[in-house]
Structure formats: C-alpha cells, structure tokens
C-alpha cells in the first residue's frame, strides 16, 4: 500500500534523482506526468488522463491547458448568462479546453504533395538508371534477336504447331496461311 | 515450348497436363474471387466515415468468416487430391526410356531396342541455324511414339539434375545412385522442349531436353535406322 501512495497523482513532478530512485514506475504514471496540472473532466477514450482531438471521441479526459488567472475569471463569468460573454471570451474558453476546432483537425493536409513528389522522383530515378544501364552497361543482345532470325523462328513455331490450343499457333489460320 | 509474352502454362500434350491446367484454372478462379472481394473491402474503406466506438465482438460474423474459408478450401482440396491420385495411376508402358544427367548434357538409353544410346548436347548459339531456338535446340532429340504410355527412369552421373518437359507436366529429379520413375503419354506429334531444373554447375542453363513425338510407325522406322 505504501508503494501505491508513492505513485504520482495529477500534480507536477519534480523529477530529480532522489525522487525517481524512491518511486516504482507503474503503467499509467507517464500519462499522469504528461497531464500535469490540467483538470480531469471526464473518462475520455480509456480512462487515462490523455488529451487528443478526434471525431470519434469528442470529449477528452482532460482540458488542453492548465488553469490561469485570466481563464479563472472567464470561468466565473461563464457560470452566469452566456449572452454576456463576448466572442473573444468564448473563443478563449474553447481554446482553454480544446486544442483545435473540428475544422482545423479535419482539414486535408498537404502531405500528399510530398508523397507524390517523392514517388515520382523515385520513379524517374529508376527509369533513368534503367535507360543508362541499357545504353552503357549491357552487352548487345544475341544474334538470335535480329528481325530475320526472329521471323524465321516464328515461322518454325507455326510450322511445328506449338501451343496449338490457346497459344500462338491457335491464332494462325493454316488453310489461308495467314493470321486469323 | 514457351512463346513470346507467354504468361500462362504451355498448351498440354498429355492428358495429365490437361488435368493440371484445369486444376490451375479452377484454383486461380477461386483466388481471383477472394482477391477481388478483399480488394473491394479495402477500397471501400477509403470512403467510409463511420466508426463504431463501442465494438467489442461479433460472434456470428466471426463464425461465418471462419467456416466459409474452410468450405472454400474444400473446393480446392477435393480436385487437388483427385488429381494427385490420378497422377499416380498404374498403367502398362510400352516404351522405357532411361535418361542420365551429366555435367552438362543428357544421355538417353532405349534398352528395349538393342541398347540404343546417345548423348544430347545443346547446340551453341554460334552454330545455330537461322530458325534455331537459342538455348533450347539440341543435336540429338529424344524420339518417342505418340499415343503410347512411356516410362522414363531418370538418374544422374555426377550431381543432381532434373528432367522436365512442361508441356507434358513431367518433372523428375535425377539423383546420383538412384532411379526415379515416372510415366507419361503424348497425344499429339511435335517437338516439346524442357530445360534442366536443378542447379548443377556452371552450364546448368545450357542442357536442354527436346522430345520429338512421332507416330508409332515412324518411331519403329527410327529405331530400325539407329539399330543398323
């Protein structure tokens, strides 16, 4: 039990070596250290005091910012008639509890331009390497690749009726001696 | 043999190869259907705006997507096993051919007929005829009768080789000190090419196999000519 009492709560931790040596770090302690002084206002997505903007979970467990005297004053005013709050005060209250608006975190980012650029550059470099290799590195193809030898081989393939069912010879009409 | 831009299996020259092609087409069809289904599901995720925040389990759908693949696998397994046993059926061969793999050529023996033996070397590219097939044509082809059951015994003299003819659906390893036997049946005349299919040294790519399938009377004439 004494170890549990030593676990840090939602208050700022001064992490000098004497404090760290005396504590056993349990799971969840890091989130409490990160949440710091911020007010816990709900369960959030999993009960941990974490802040994140998400369409799925509109109300995080903690407010985004810590309490300051200016915000305290506006919070007092909020307890009264909301029509008395100015637009600036409403915005300040929103930004105290939340980091971004729905419009801001749902916005389409320009990341796609970087990804597309990198992809096209990679493609271009690959094509360049292929062309340069073909022109400079590789030997000439064997003489059997010449047009007359290839056509002689094709004539022989047709005469031997190779792949006559669905392959090359099936496309040749033997009665009229031409392609179908 | 393989022709230009050939993506599929070669057309069969053997009834067993026909069955292999049918099974290949059947299994590929099932695979394409599965791929299209999964691809469609993944593609539609781009256009989905809904999230179920409280999703824990779905017993019914999990049962369905376990049992349905098992049934699909049965549709693949039954034809596969049927073909497997069909390939092992016993028949009475009329000709026996022995094929010995060497580094780097094949030698053949027809012991049924007065011990006809010969070596089969690849024709080098610089000695090839104008219409010769590079890396495929050989000096002495293996002549076999069509429409007859043929037994082949494959072995090797030095390292492991593998004797194969894709159009007949035959691939047999030739291991030194061991005879491997298989049967096949050629149902049309022509030339059927294959290449050594087990790495056997520097010229592994340059020891092809060519079968010349001829009617029985031509085969008998060839045997008589070789005998004399």
UniProtKB/TrEMBL annotation, chain A:
Coiled coil: none annotated. It holds the Pfam family COX4. GO terms for biological process: mitochondrial electron transport, cytochrome c to oxygen. One of its GO terms (molecular function) is oxidoreductase activity. It is found in: Mitochondrion inner membrane. GO terms for cellular component: mitochondrial inner membrane; respiratory chain complex IV. Pathway: Energy metabolism; oxidative phosphorylation. Transmembrane segments: none annotated. It is a single-pass membrane protein. The keyword Glycoprotein does not apply. Its main location: mitochondrion. Keywords: Membrane, Mitochondrion, Mitochondrion inner membrane, Oxidoreductase, Transit peptide, Transmembrane, Transmembrane helix. Component of the cytochrome c oxidase, the last enzyme in the mitochondrial electron transport chain which drives oxidative phosphorylation. Belongs to the cytochrome c oxidase IV family. Component of the cytochrome c oxidase (complex IV, CIV), a multisubunit enzyme composed of 14 subunits. This is Cytochrome c oxidase subunit 4. It comes from Drosophila ananassae (Fruit fly). The lineage of its organism: Eukaryota, Metazoa, Ecdysozoa, Arthropoda, Hexapoda.
TrEMBL record, chain B:
It comes from Drosophila ananassae. Residues 92-225 form the Cytochrome oxidase subunit II copper A binding domain. Belongs to the cytochrome c oxidase subunit 2 family. It is a multi-pass membrane protein. One of its GO terms (biological process) is ATP synthesis coupled electron transport. Component of the cytochrome c oxidase (complex IV, CIV), a multisubunit enzyme composed of a catalytic core of 3 subunits and several supernumerary subunits. The complex exists as a monomer or a dimer and forms supercomplexes (SCs) in the inner mitochondrial membrane with ubiquinol-cytochrome c oxidoreductase (cytochrome b-c1 complex, complex III, CIII). Residues 1-91 form the Cytochrome oxidase subunit II transmembrane region profile domain. It catalyses: 4 Fe(II)-[cytochrome c] + O2 + 8 H(+)(in) = 4 Fe(III)-[cytochrome c] + 2 H2O + 4 H(+)(out). Its cofactor is Cu cation. NCBIfam families: CoxB. Binds a copper A center. Signal peptide: none annotated. This is Cytochrome c oxidase subunit 2. Component of the cytochrome c oxidase, the last enzyme in the mitochondrial electron transport chain which drives oxidative phosphorylation. The respiratory chain contains 3 multisubunit complexes succinate dehydrogenase (complex II, CII), ubiquinol-cytochrome c oxidoreductase (cytochrome b-c1 complex, complex III, CIII) and cytochrome c oxidase (complex IV, CIV), that cooperate to transfer electrons derived from NADH and succinate to molecular oxygen, creating an electrochemical gradient over the inner membrane that drives transmembrane transport and the ATP synthase. InterPro entries: CcO_II (IPR045187), CcO_II-like_C (IPR002429), CcO_II_C (IPR034210), Copper_CuA (IPR001505), Cupredoxin (IPR008972), Cyt_c_oxidase_su2 (IPR014222), Cyt_c_oxidase_su2_TM_dom (IPR011759), Cyt_c_oxidase_su2_TM_sf (IPR036257). GO terms for molecular function: copper ion binding; cytochrome-c oxidase activity; oxidoreductase activity.
């Amino acid at each position: 039990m004494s170890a549990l009492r030593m676990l840090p709560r939602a208050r700022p931790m001064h992490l000098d070596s004497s404090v760290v040596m005396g504590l056993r770090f349990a799971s969840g302690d890091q989130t409490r250290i990160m949440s710091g002084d911020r007010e816990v206002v709900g369960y959030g997505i999993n009960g941990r005091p974490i802040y994140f903007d998400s369409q799925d979970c509109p109300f995080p467990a903690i407010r985004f910012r810590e309490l300051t005297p200016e915000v305290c004053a506006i919070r007092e005013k909020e307890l009264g008639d909301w029509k008395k709050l100015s637009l600036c005060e409403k915005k300040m209250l929103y930004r105290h509890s939340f980091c971004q608006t729905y419009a801001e975190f749902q916005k389409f980012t320009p990341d796609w331009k970087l990804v597309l650029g990198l992809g096209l550059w990679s493609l271009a470099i690959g094509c360049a390497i292929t062309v340069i290799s073909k022109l400079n590195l590789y030997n000439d193809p064997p003489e059997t690749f010449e047009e007359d030898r290839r056509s002689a081989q094709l004539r022989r393939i047709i005469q031997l009726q190779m792949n006559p069912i669905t392959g090359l010879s099936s496309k040749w009409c033997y009665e009229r001696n031409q392609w179908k | 043999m393989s022709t230009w831009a050939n993506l599929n299996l070669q057309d069969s020259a053997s009834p067993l190869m026909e069955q292999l092609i049918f099974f290949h087409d059947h299994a590929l069809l099932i695979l394409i259907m599965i791929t299209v289904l999964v691809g469609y599901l993944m593609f539609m995720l781009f256009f989905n705006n809904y999230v179920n925040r409280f999703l824990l389990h779905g017993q019914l759908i999990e049962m369905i997507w376990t049992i349905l693949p098992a049934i699909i696998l049965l549709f693949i397994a039954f034809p596969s096993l049927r073909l497997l046993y069909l390939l092992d059926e016993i028949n009475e061969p009329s000709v026996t051919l022995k094929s010995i793999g060497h580094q780097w050529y094949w030698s053949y023996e027809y012991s049924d007929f007065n011990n006809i033996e010969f070596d089969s070397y690849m024709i080098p590219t610089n000695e090839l005829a104008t219409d010769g097939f590079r890396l495929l044509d050989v000096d002495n082809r293996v002549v076999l009768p069509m429409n007859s059951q043929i037994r082949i015994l494959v072995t090797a003299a030095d390292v492991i080789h593998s004797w194969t003819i894709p159009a007949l659906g035959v691939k047999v390893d030739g291991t030194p000190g061991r005879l491997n036997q298989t049967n096949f049946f050629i149902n049309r005349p022509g030339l059927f090419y294959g290449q050594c299919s087990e790495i056997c040294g520097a010229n592994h790519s340059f020891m092809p196999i060519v079968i010349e399938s001829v009617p029985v009377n031509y085969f008998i004439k060839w045997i008589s000519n070789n005998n004399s």
